[in-house]
Amino acid sequence: MQLYSDLHIHSCFSIASSRNMLPDTLLASCRKKGIGILGTGDALHAGWRNLWQERLCSGTDVLVVPTTEVEDRDRVHHLIILASFDHCRDLEARLAPHAGNLHRTGRPRINLGGEAIARAVHDIEGLIGPAHAFTPWTSLYASFDSPGECYGQEPVDFLELGLSADSSYGAAIPELAGIPFLTSSDAHSPDPSRLGREFTGLSLNEKTPGGVIEAIMAGAIFLNAGYFPEQGKYSRTACSRCFRQFSHAEATAARWKCPDDGGKITRGVADRADGLSTGLPSKRPPYLHIIPLPEIIRTVLCTSSPSTRACRELYDRFISAFGDEIRILARAPVSDLAQVDERVARAVDSFRSSRVRFIPGGGGRYGSFSLFDAGI
Questions:
Q1: What is the structure's pLDDT at 145?
Q2: Residue 148 has pLDDT above 70, yes or no
């Protein structure tokens, strides 16, 4: 059984998250996107677990898997995948003596190193790996040069690439050979431009949380999908104040301080990954670069936001015609898409054919794009 998964999201209990991050809203968004497996996010929060358990009593066609993100004492963020809510309660009890905010926030800080947290997760047969591993803040490669420096003797079960990286960024890093790559949205909103903006295709033997864990451990990933890396906020090395971009050599010569305004120059994901890539590229599943349909529609209609009424109405017309967004972006014939809107069909054809021009993101600002031959 092949399903698309988004295993890293947040709840209404996380800082800077939408109040609409609620089970019913999330499940409805999954159906529109074509996501068949959803990580709960924030599963160490008892209130969030209760909301999910109440909702799941009535059943759902989307497989819901307990997941959470934690920050360790070195400011590294870890994604954790568990087999049941009982395992979440067990992990909560193990980590509670080392955390003061488990009951107050969805993404808690744990005053332990990565190895100790990983050991606690593995003791209850869960999986753990670095979240948004290349991001210059709160990530594995922001604090360490290798997984072993962070996780010690504990195995790394997977690595989440993050919005500013694709599989090619980690394929030639020797320590990552054999470690599965996950792509997920890290969504704080159920909006279709956020939820499922990155996803992983998993081949399951059984449609259960245990089946998801088994698939990841076996490397049964048939597809990674997500942003073109240039769309990410930290794609290029840039000033975090004025966003001027620099080569690595230029940033080093400037001592990582912007000569224009004195702002801190933040090392981009592309430069960080390149510096770590000292081996031959390992074979990885196909990576599908996508631009979320709401962003394509916003560009076509020349609106300031994908949340405008015109954008939402056109988005809903496409979903009504084709069922879900992944089908629209990846598989539906362009000629069929044109029956709903020719401009959007041309735009989809452009990004499928890599006829895209980017102004790469960096320093904390998302990249922008234009589509060739889209009539816009």
A1: 97
A2: yes
